[in-house]
Amino acid sequence: MYDPDGDIGPEKSCLNMKFTEEARFSFGCAVIELDGGAKVGRRCTPFVYSGQWILTIEEMDRHINAEVRRVQALPGVSSPWVTGHRSTNDGIFENDCASRLKGIGKKLLDELAKVGITTVQDIANIPSEEIPGIVAQLHGISLRSMQKFKHTAQTANHGSYVPRLVDHKKTDNPYESLFGTTWRDQIVKSTGMKSSVCITTMVEHIIQASPRVMAKTKHADDWVFMHDALSQMTCTSTIAWMKEMGYYRRWVLPELGLNWKTRYAGRPVGNSPEPGIAR
């Protein structure tokens, strides 16, 4: 009921997010002039980085180093970071414990130990005529089973099994140790790296997608692209990398004194959407 003398409650505000999940893309397009002079538009395959942040080379390296240190600190000797665990495919060896033979568990192993049988070689060396007498002294084993164990033991490899365990966690880079030349492809798939993508990945996408839309045109070989002054692209490390890879010459930049004596001299203009490909 309305009370004219009542107090008005404090004003409240509620944040209503318009986009709870953000989709992130980098689009490229080009106007292509065909042989007859007609012009058509073409779209590049979009670069999708939804759920990710674009990092500079230095930032990506720091994330990679952090992931390497995380793996190095993992305890235990389980897969995938420790490889070479012994499997059934490695076979059995003469000096193996008798329990390596299928069917010999702890109880039977204890029984065999009573008559001095502890290794695979011990079982293989039992004279066939002595097997009935040995079986009579033991509990839980039949003559047929003992004969089967002897037959299997006689197929054992000579000597002892040589462990081949490799603990990749103990190396300078567990990912490179385990995956070889594809280690960078694997590390970016890790849980701690999935939210990050390096600027070089986006630039590589531009460099690969551009010639596909410019194919069979007069600029198939000398195409160039335009992109705004994304800070990750204009930073010193990215520019040095692009020059090293031969990509920098493809980027349309101010020439003939345009933007001279400004803080962005020699660089593309600020953060605004631009066509992905020129020509």
Descriptive notes:
This protein has 279 residues and is an alpha+beta fold. The chain has 2 domains: 1-52 and 195-279, no CATH class; 88-153, DNA polymerase, domain 1. The chain has 10 helices and 8 strands. It has helices at 57-72, 106-113, 120-124, 131-137, 143-153, 174-179, 183-187, 199-213, 231-234, 236-245, and strands at 25-26, 29-33, 39-43, 47-48, 53-55, 82-83, 166-167, 196-198. The model has no long low-confidence stretch (mean pLDDT 87). Strand 2 (29-33) and strand 3 (39-43) form a beta hairpin.
Features:
single chain, 279 residues, alpha+beta, DNA polymerase, domain 1, two-stranded antiparallel sheet, two-stranded antiparallel ribbon, 10 helices
Tally of individual helices: 10
Strand content: 5-15%
Q: What would you report as the Rg, rounded to the nearest angstrom?
A: 35 Å
Shape: elongated
Secondary structure class reads alpha+beta
Give the topology string: H per helix, E per strand.
Answer: EEEEEHEHHHHEHHEHHH
Number of domains: 2
**Low-confidence runs (pLDDT<50, min 5 residues)?**
none
How many angstroms separate the termini?
72 Å
Strand order of the largest sheet: 1-4
Helix percentage = 25-40%
For the secondary structure, the number of strands is 8
Q: Largest sheet, if any?
A: 2 strands, antiparallel
- Tell me, rounded to a whole number, the average pLDDT: 87
